[in-house]
Design goal:
Blueprint lengths: L4 H8 L2 E5 L5 H10 L3 E4 L6 H7 L2 E5 L8 H14 L3 E4 L7 H13 L4 E5 H7 L24 H15 L2 E5 L3 E4 L4 E4 L12 H15 L4 H25 L4 H14 L2 H7 L2 E3 L1
Parallel strand pairs: 1-2, 1-3, 3-4, 4-5, 5-6
Antiparallel strand pairs: 6-7, 7-8, 8-9
């Protein structure tokens, strides 16, 4: 299902420009490295276009927006579009403030995204279903969580949003949905304790950008592979941490360890994926 994706990342080692969350910037850089890419972090308006031009992909993360970085995300996004580089939007805490909502919607109007990845609450705001919504910081609200009962609707909504934006949509949570306008991957890898580690979503977004940059023309499959790989490595990391008598602290360290050594064979054997 995901044959060739990891190999192309390893061969090309894409350079990814991350304008990301200050809370998780080190973890994002380490995960991009672990998954086979190479990160660079730059958010000053005076250099973002130049840095973006050197890179193979771009991450725009709204987790710590401020007046200094807002011009940068637009400059970098438009430059990446002009160069044909994939741009990945991570609308962290999209419903938490008017600043975030307004910036995200302006970005959607002015920048073409290859991928939009967020939790169910964030993606509902992106879809303009409740602009005054009850987003709980970076966490999905209980009523928004994807489960077996609402899965079909989540898939339909994701595909509708993909048609509207032209982006691959990745809605991550207990059940992950990765969809374009024609197909959807339902991914059940992962472990509940991943929610106890700050920044797993931000790390995944960096991975997604790297894997898309290394697999042009195969974006949907690359995104699904990245989401599946993160979930699988989370499962393995928790199991190893428990064996060593630890908890989420050890799990966090092992997450990058398992990602750094992941093979296509392991991914294929461990995947819990349904393609529709």
């Amino acid at each position: 299902m995901f044959e060739g994706i990891l190999e192309r990342v390893a061969t090309q080692r894409p350079l990814i420009h991350c304008i990301t969350n200050y809370v998780t910037i080190t973890d994002v850089a380490n995960m991009v490295l672990a998954c086979g890419g190479s990160p660079i972090m730059a958010d000053d308006p005076q250099e973002v276009e130049e840095v973006t031009a050197l890179c193979d992909g771009l991450v725009l993360n709204t987790g710590t927006l401020h007046t200094h970085t807002i011009p940068s995300v637009f400059l970098a996004g438009k430059r990446a579009n002009a160069l044909g580089h994939p741009v990945v939007l991570d609308p962290v805490g999209a419903g938490a403030s008017r600043l975030r909502r307004d910036t995200i919607h302006q970005l959607l109007e002015q920048v073409q995204f290859a991928v939009i990845r967020g939790n169910s609450s964030e993606m509902r705001v992106v879809a303009q279903q409740h602009l005054t919504g009850a987003s709980r910081g970076v966490d999905a609200g209980v009523g928004d969580a994807t489960d077996e009962q609402n899965l079909e609707k989540v898939v339909r909504d994701a595909q509708s949003l993909s048609r509207r934006t032209g982006a691959v949509i990745a809605i991550t949570g207990a059940i992950d949905v990765v969809a374009d306008s024609q197909r959807a991957y339902i991914i059940r890898n992962g472990h509940p304790m991943m929610e106890r580690i700050t920044g797993t979503g931000c790390m995944l977004t960096g991975m997604v950008a790297a894997w898309c940059a290394a697999n042009p023309g195969d974006t949907t499959r690359a995104v699904a592979a990245a989401v599946c790989a993160m979930g699988l490595c989370g499962q393995l990391a928790w199991e190893r941490a428990q064996q060593e008598g630890g908890g989420v602290g050890l799990m966090r360290a092992h997450l990058a360890d398992f990602m750094g050594s992941l093979t296509t064979k392991q991914l294929e054997e461990g995947k819990r994926v349904e393609l529709r």
